[in-house]
Amino acid sequence: MTQAQKAKAASDAKAMIARNKKALHDYFIDDRFEAGLVLSGTEVKALRMGRASLTEAWIEVDRRGEAWIIGMNIPVYAMGSWTNHRPTAKRKLLLHKDELDELAVRSREKGYTIVPLELYFLRGRAKVEIGIARGKQEWDKRETLKRKQDKRETDRALAEVRRRQR
């Protein structure tokens, strides 16, 4: 690869800003969508500094068929002036019409909600990965943790066996 190709590949890569681990613990994710965000200048600058939180955020689809992310915290940009943004403002999501229709229908079903999973930059644009989620019961959460722990232990044991065979 030439130097220019390496630079382009690096700029096209997905630059992670925030991940909502709590959502993956509390919900089963059925479908995933990628949505753009409508942001102001200071919001983008704060995101480029890697500062955001998705833990308390959720997505609503209003009567006009527009999707909004509510409760996402983008802290105030330190170098901003009087044009700074509100940290927990309601922000519009950019999705295709058929995706918005599916989100609206599925979110009205009992037991389903729409949650943000990841916030990242892709080719210079801020994107959020959202998921249609079904709530987990307490025993589901314990089962998931037990399964993760079992997988971790088997991976360690296999690594130990491979290390001894060398």
Q: Can you walk me through this structure?
A:
This protein has 166 residues and is of the alpha+beta class. The protein is built from five helices and seven strands. Strand 3 and strand 4 form a beta hairpin. It is globular, with a radius of gyration of 20 Å. The two termini are 34 Å apart.
How many angstroms separate the termini? Answer: 34 Å
Strand order of the largest sheet: 1-6-7-2-5-4-3
Q: What is the count of helical runs?
A: 5
Q: Assign the structural class, choosing from mainly alpha, mainly beta, alpha/beta, alpha+beta, or little secondary structure.
A: alpha+beta
Give the fraction of residues assigned to helices.
Answer: 25-40%
Radius of gyration: 20 Å
Mean pLDDT: 86
Annotation, overall tally of beta strands: 7
Instruction: Summarize the biggest pleated sheet.
Output: 7 strands, antiparallel
Spans of 5+ residues with little confidence (pLDDT < 50)? none
Q: Report the order of strands and helices.
A: HEHEHEEEHEEH
Q: Per DSSP, what share of the residues sits in E-state strands of 2 or more residues?
A: 25-35%
The oligomeric state of the chains shown is single chain
What characteristic shape results from the CA principal axes? globular
Summarize the structure.
This protein is an alpha+beta fold and 166 residues long. The chain is 39% helix and 31% strand.
Features:
alpha+beta; 7 strands; 31% strand; 166 residues; 5 helices; single chain; seven-stranded antiparallel sheet
SSE blueprint:
Blueprint: H1 3-12, E1 14-19, H2 21-26, E2 27-37, H3 41-48, E3 58-61, E4 67-70, E5 91-94, H4 97-108, E6 112-122, E7 125-135, H5 138-165
Antiparallel strand pairs: 1-6, 2-5, 2-7, 3-4, 4-5, 6-7
